[in-house]
User: Fold HK97 family phage prohead protease from Defluviimonas salinarum.
Amino acid sequence: MTTGIYGMEMKFCRLGEDVAIRDGCRIEGYASFFGITDQGGDVVMPGAYGKSLERLKAQGRAVKMLWQHDPAQPIGVWDEIAEDGRGLKVKGRILTEVEKGREAAALVAAGAIDGLSIGYRTVTAEKDANGQRLLREVELWEVSLVTFPMLPEARVGAKGDALGDGDLRELAALFEEARRALAGL
Assistant:
């Protein structure tokens, strides 16, 4: 766990085996897993995100998709964020209409970036007998694409849905087309 601006905490998680870019710039997977001790000695408990997600929905707000936790660099939108039995599942779109979004999509597709990280504020936590901090409730602010994840158990690649060579060629052609269009401006 690291602490960033405004006291926001951040947890890093590798894009798991259930994460891939689909349909060009769609991404999905787990931003957090329940019951796994991260490299900072914290364990997110089931239900930790529930109240925060309900509040955001009631207020008509959304969790932000950022690049490397930088609030000045939003790179997309999370269309779905929900807790399930494993953790915090996210589905969203990297926006290639913004420069950093184009870069992020290319880096994820190439395998150079393989991490997700949550930015949050702890609402309720306790220490267990082993000194691990059990996060019972957190206020979720953002989920970022990052270089270095905190949960090394999860890996890049989706079950049957991962990009194949043909998909990568199509994605590369889209990027080349966008680059040419921008060069003509």
